[in-house]
Structures are given as C-alpha cells and as structure tokens.
Amino acid sequence: MNSLKGYIEKRAIELSEYIVKNKCTVRAAAKKFGVSKSTVHKDVAIRMTEIDKNLLNEVRKVLDDNLETRHIRGGNATKEKYQKLKSSKA
Question: What is the pLDDT of residue 16?
C-alpha cells in the first residue's frame, strides 16, 4: 500500500510541475497524463497541501489565472467554430 501512496504523491507533484511550467489548464494536464479532470484537481488542490505548499501556491496562481480568463478562451473557441462553419459553406 505504501507504493500506491508514493505513486499518487509522485503523480501529484508531476501534475503540479507540469501545470506551472506550461501554464496549462486542468483539462490539458488531464489529457497529457491520461487521467480525469477530477483526479488532476484532487491531486493539485488537495493532495499538494500535504506534499509541497510552495508548489501548491504556484499551481493555484496558474489555476486562478485560468479561471479569470476562461470566458475569453470560451468565446474564442466559439468564434473559431463558427468561422470554420462559415468557411466550409462558402
């Protein structure tokens, strides 16, 4: 059972470092590591409190920034979607 806990801690650290290094979203990290968004969130938001608080603070800054700009990314995605539809019909 100890090895499982070690694996989870290692994954939490790797996910956190990846998010900080790439300034990516939870969704992008989940896709890269092949885990669910819920797993990423639990690893970086809950498990990191017990592992590395400094890294946790860095991850929170990135995730807070992502939350603040989410509406912009969503709007851009919608704009691109309709531009593609318009160009394919023309």
Answer: 95
Confidence of residue 4 (pLDDT cuts 50, 70, 90): low
Tell me which residue range forms the domain holding 40. Answer: 2-89
The tokens for 83 are 């531009």
What amino acid is encoded at 33 in this protein? F
- Domain count within the chain: 1
pLDDT at 90: 62
Helix (H) or strand (E) holding 71: helix 53-89
Q: Read off the amino acid at residue 84.
A: K
Q: How many CB atoms lie within 10 A of CB 66?
A: 17
Query: Please, what is the end-to-end C-alpha distance for the chain in angstroms?
Result: 60
| pTM for this predicted structure | 0.73
CA atoms of 68 and 61, how far apart (whole Å): 11
